[in-house]
């Protein structure tokens, strides 16, 4: 298993894009990684845009990002909620400072924008937030997946296989 002994934070709030959260969680677990589901509250049920639930294991405030090897930010409308938490932005900044993998897909770029870590980075996202990404100092491209250092970005659900293949490679190395 490629990712045995790797620990990943999967942040969550309501209205996540169901596939953009669940597909990465399942793929990483298949590769042997421990994926902790982290929300505003522990043991809270969060509902995706299409009704698929997930229950958080930890609250944002309960975890130490230094104990993890990577973080995943789901798409959907949840990034607009997630970026309002200083603890979420701190997690992203800590992992970025340590050059650990940060995965973002679709609207998840909003969290990275609010964490102020995109200056000079090449990224992709849903085209709907292209202007937000470029205004944050990133170079935006319309590609299935983009890897720039520790940041792995992707556009939307059809790109999930490419996104996870690259994210797993970055995390494994």
Output the number of helix runs. 6
> Residue ranges: pLDDT <50 for 5 or more in a row?
none
| Structural class label | alpha/beta
Shape verdict? globular
Tell me what the structure shows.
- By secondary structure, this protein is of the alpha/beta class.
- It has one domain: 3-Layer(aba) Sandwich (Rossmann fold), CATH 3.40.50.
- About 30% of the residues lie in helices and about 25% in strands.
- It is built from six helices and eleven strands.
- It has helices at about 20-30, 80, 85-95, 110-115, 130-135, 160-170; strands at about 5-10, 35-40, 45, 55, 60, 70-75, 100-105, 120-125, 140, 145-150, 150-155.
- The strands form three sheets. The chain has a seven-stranded mixed beta sheet, with helices on both faces. A two-stranded antiparallel sheet has the order 3-4.
- The two termini are about 15 Å apart.
- The mean pLDDT is about 100.
- It comes from Alkalihalophilus lindianensis.
- Keywords: Glutamine amidotransferase.
- Pfam families: DJ-1_PfpI.
């Amino acid at each position: 298993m490629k990712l045995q002994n790797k620990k990943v934070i999967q942040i969550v709030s309501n209205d996540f894009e169901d596939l953009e959260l669940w597909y990465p969680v399942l793929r990483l677990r298949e590769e042997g990684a421990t994926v902790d589901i982290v929300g505003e509250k522990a043991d809270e049920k969060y509902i995706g845009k299409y009704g698929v639930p997930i229950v958080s294991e930890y609250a944002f405030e309960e975890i130490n990002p230094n104990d993890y090897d990577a973080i995943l930010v789901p798409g959907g409308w949840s990034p607009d909620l997630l970026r309002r938490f200083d603890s979420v932005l701190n997690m992203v900044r800590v992992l970025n400072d340590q050059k650990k993998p940060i995965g973002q897909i679709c609207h998840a770029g909003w969290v990275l924008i609010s964490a102020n870590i995109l200056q000079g980075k090449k990224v992709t996202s849903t085209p709907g937030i292209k202007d937000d990404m470029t205004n944050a100092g990133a170079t935006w491209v319309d590609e299935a997946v983009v890897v720039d250092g520790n940041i792995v970005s992707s556009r939307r659900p059809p790109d999930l296989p490419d996104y996870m293949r690259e994210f797993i490679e970055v995390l494994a190395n």
